[in-house]
What does this fold into?
Amino acid sequence: EIVLTQSPGTLSLSPGERATLSCRARQTVSSSDLAWYQHKPGQAPRLLIYDASSRATGIPDRFSGSGSGTDFTLTITRLEPEDFAVYYCHHYRSSHRTFGQGTKVEIK
Amino acid sequence: QVQLVQSGAEVKKPGASVRVSCKASGYTFTEYYLHWVRQAPGQGFEWMGWINPHSGVTDLEERFQDRVTMTRDTSISTAYMEITNLRSDDTAVYYCARQGVTWLGAWFDPWGQGTRVTVSS
It folds into this structure.
């Protein structure tokens, strides 16, 4: 199975700042096999990005995904108050779907 | 709109069983695979397996194969996930999630709201 490691564990930022979240795979992942989700306490996880860089329907353009091979990035260009949450990357193409352990984006 | 609504929270004793339901609406239930994912307290997501609502065929992660059953009732567009012989480390929030597209091997969208299962004596 593909092990995904996210960093940092916690990101402390202020509204308006830029957030850069990393997801590193232990082995090469096809760019079409990686998604990002946002998760807030007590809510359903929300799809942000699929196929590494395609924005899901209704997702603001301040969210973008990039990367290939073993290194993938989720960027939030200007943090809005509603963006403070936990973010997970997800490898979905193999028979053993895996998630990263998450990056918490908290208000500084 | 596409929606998955799960059953309510459960509290069970060790050794008991629990069944969580996931009712789909807003799309043709039999056309999209459904997955089950759990999140233990303070932990990340753990994928458990999928069910093909059309055929009923399932594929479970190996660690869940002896205690987890996934079924569906197409007449009411509902999927079920049952865990038997519950242990304390089964305490988690359980989510159902639909594939974002009709073929297997794709992202999950949308997810259900989650069902908290607490296993405690």
DSSP finds no helices and eleven strands in chain B.
